[in-house]
Amino acid sequence: MENKQTAVEWLEKQIKDHTIIKPALINGFEILLVEAKAMEKEQIIKFAMHLHQVDMSKTGTDILMEEAEEYYNETYGKI
Q: Which pLDDT does position 47 carry in this prediction?
């Protein structure tokens, strides 16, 4: 299975490819990325656990999308 890129990994690549970061800031930046990746992983795991609790007998693509959006809005707020 091919690995996909998370949003945090994409942001990391964009920043590293398109900006010049002063060497003194790189360590702090790397620490923040590690924390962001850990948070993102935890969010994905929690959502997967939440979906596992959904009544799968009623689940179709539209219902899963609604459930995912509802979960996101309740957990992280609307954007």
A: 80
